[in-house]
Amino acid sequence: MIFQIRVTLSGIKGFFRVYHIHGATTLYTFHKQLRSDLDFAQDQLIMFKALDVTGELIGRYGLFDLGWGTVDKMSIEKLVKAGADTIIYFYDVTNRKSVILTVEGEVQDPRVSPDVPVLDQVKGPNPIEFENGYVAFEDLPERQRHLPGEEGFDPDEDDDLEDGDEDFADEDEDADEDGSEIYDENE
């Protein structure tokens, strides 16, 4: 069996990855592929949290046995048979950083082997870019969403930016109107 799994970030529309994964692939093999593709740090503890359709916990799988098994013993197919619909992959357990893995069903893909998941679709930069302030077009507020050359935000409509407003223009000149300076030449 070959499964299609979509990787997303919670609340971000401008990011996803779609993988085709052989059912015999272990969570550890998938972890190594995700870590490589998405530039996750290699020195962090990881954990997979499997949930069913209703959001109930099926199991937690880590490098150490957390009571449900380890990532090198649990396969994608075993998780799907146990009812896993969504898997939350914590790529940095300490800082609670995660991506959401959603099982979208079975596919036919002759390129897939149990050793190497195949990246099928890509959208957006890696998750670290979102942490650094990147905002995808889809995630912009409606009033800021426009392409170059299209009509977008009009500064004339903003009350704070009137032509006669001199608050910002004379800021340097007015800084010492009362004669008291912050700088003391005797210091």
Shape: globular
**Per CATH, which architecture?**
Roll
Question: How many β-strand stretches?
Answer: 7
Q: What is the succession of H and E elements?
A: EEHEEHEEEH
Low-pLDDT regions: none
Count the DSSP helices. 3
Task: Walk me through the structure.
The protein is α+β, with helices and mostly antiparallel strands and 187 residues long. It has one domain (2-139): Roll (Structural Genomics Hypothetical 15.5 Kd Protein In mrcA-pckA Intergenic Region, Chain A). 12% of the residues lie in helices and 26% in strands. The chain has three helices and seven strands. It has helices at 27-37, 76-81, 127-131; strands at residues 2-8, 16-22, 47-51, 57-62, 86-92, 97-106, 118-123. A seven-stranded antiparallel sheet has the order 4-3-5-6-1-2-7. It is globular, with a radius of gyration of 25 Å.
Question: What descriptors fit this protein?
Answer:
187 residues, alpha+beta, Structural Genomics Hypothetical 15.5 Kd Protein In mrcA-pckA Intergenic Region, Chain A, seven-stranded antiparallel β-sheet, 7 strands, 12% helix
Structure summarized in a few sentences:
The protein has 187 residues and is of the alpha+beta class. 12% of the residues lie in helices and 26% in strands. The chain has helices at residues 27-37, 76-81, 127-131; strands spanning 2-8, 16-22, 47-51, 57-62, 86-92, 97-106, 118-123.
How is this fold's topology laid out?
Blueprint: E1 2-8, E2 16-22, H1 27-37, E3 47-51, E4 57-62, H2 76-81, E5 86-92, E6 97-106, E7 118-123, H3 127-131
Antiparallel strand pairs: 1-2, 1-6, 2-7, 3-4, 3-5, 5-6
